[in-house]
Amino acid sequence: GATLHDVLREARPIHLSATGQGWWHSMVQYFASAVTNSDVSVMALLIGLAGALWPSRRKPSPAIVILAIAVLAFCSFISALHLWWYRWFLPVIPPLLALIAIAWSHLTDQFLRTSWPESLVRLGSILLLFLALWPSMKAAVEQLSQARAPFSSSLAREWILQNIPAGSRIFVETYGPQLPYQQYALFGAEDGKICYRVAPNGYLINVPVARVGDITLDDLRLNRVQYVILTDWEERFAMEQRAYAVPLSVYHAVENSATIVHDFASARGPRVRILKLYFPESPRNLRGPQC
User: Fold this and answer.
1) Which end of the chain is more exposed for a tag (fewer CB within 10 A), N or C?
2) Could you tell me which of 210, 227, 232 has the C-alpha nearest to residue 161?
3) DSSP string across the chain
């Protein structure tokens, strides 16, 4: 249906983020990323594998079999797509953890049937569960702390309002700070051309939509842009340097003609850099088309 159509369209080979390198590589990378992001620990995966391979006289229930098949089928599907996107793996986490919990329970039952003391088995089972959950619990606390921290674009906005004079001419990339129209001359880009942002009726704040890689250094110079606010688009293009050599050359040219006055690299959210451009005197009546 429509969902499958949208997924396949986003997964087309020409997609900017089409970084998948084949079914097997993508599958391994999904599980490796789950461990890196502390959504599932290595210990938890080992428990699940041990529980699945441990021989048992009882056959698994149909519900468990269906759940396991569904998880494998979904992982196979997203691994076959050109677009590797970890967020697509997130629906797998809850059923995967449910299967791991079933495996943990199965292992506990099997050890209780041995000659080992019951108290020792139960203590070991609880310790094993704690070790499996510890990375996720630690990550949850860290993420809660990070979520309380201010966002990079918000910090950049506060810094700009306090340090960049009113009337300055600023080009802002997508995901950058939302600045007031009345205080600055704001520039963006549409259809590969630089344009002067005009406040729509009822709007006081600009929502930036632009990428420096879509224009040229001369566009910035001729429109006397004084500051450029870069987000993480250069990093995205750098993931496919051969395919996006032209946009990357624009970023390099801009950076060579500017000084970084502030870098919000350590804040939450995409990296935001504020660059001040240095150009020789240029025509003073150019603003470019409005958008």
Assistant:
1) N
2) 227
3) -HHHHHHHHHT-TTSTT-----HHHHHHHHHHHHHHTTSS-HHHHHHHHHHHHS--SSPPPHHHHHHHHHHHHHHHHHHTSS---GGGGGGGHHHHHHHHHHHHHHHHHHHHTSSS-HHHHHHHHHHHHHHHHHHHHHHHHHHHHHHTSPBHHHHHHHHHHHHSPTT-EEEE-TTS---BTTTSEEEEEETTEEEE--PPTT--B------GGGS-HHHHHHTT--EEEE-SHHHHHHTTTTTTHHHHHHHHHHHHTEEEEEE-TTSBSS--EEEEE------SS----B-
The first and second tokens of residue 12, run together, are 């087309």
Distance in Å from the first CA to the final CA of the chain: 36
Q: Is the Cβ–Cβ distance between 130 and 32 less than 8 Å?
A: no
**pTM of the predicted model as reported, rounded to 2 decimal places:** 0.58
247 token code pair: 């946009």
Q: Which residue has the higher pLDDT, 62 or 283?
A: 62
Using one digit for the tens of pLDDT, what is the confidence trace for 209-225?
889 999 999 999 999 99
Nearest to 76 by CA among 17, 30, 15, 38: 30
Q: Is the pLDDT of residue 152 over 80?
A: yes
Tens of pLDDT along 89-110? 999 999 988 989 988 888 888 8
Q: What is the mean pLDDT of residues 57-83?
A: 86
Q: What angle do CA 249, 169, 158 make, to 5 degrees?
A: 100
**CA pair distance 143, 164, nearest whole angstrom:** 32
Count the alpha carbons within 13 Å of 77 in the hemisphere toward its beta carbon: 13
